[in-house]
Model the fold of this input.
Amino acid sequence: LSTDRVRAKPALSPQVSFMLGQNAIGLGVWGLFFPNGVHRFLGLTGSPQTTQLLFGAREMVTGIGLFSDPTRSGVLWARVAGDVFDIAVLSTLNRRSNPQQSNARLALGVVLAVTALDVITATRMTNVKRNCD
Done:
């Protein structure tokens, strides 16, 4: 493991944070440019423009923020807030009347796992002392 711009033990958290940022950019592209695909996959109803804004743009902004500097704890906490929103939405889609319930349940499980990573990484990045300002 290599050290990076934070004074900490071998810095795994920034590497995880960078990976989370890359993943967020991919999800942002899906939400921004293919909102109808998101709707079909999850069984969402409503406006694709809402999906572009609340899902795609949010993921893209946090992804770029972490991609440019994976040690930014504020961006990580913004991801956690977005995860809470996603969990709420996906929980409402996890119902028998949704023809895509299995996809919504899969997405919910993934978001719960990523939320745990986001919280751990955000906590770690909040508690380190930066040595470059």
Summary: Residues 93 and 104 are 6 Å apart (CA to CA). The beta strands are 6-7, 129-130.
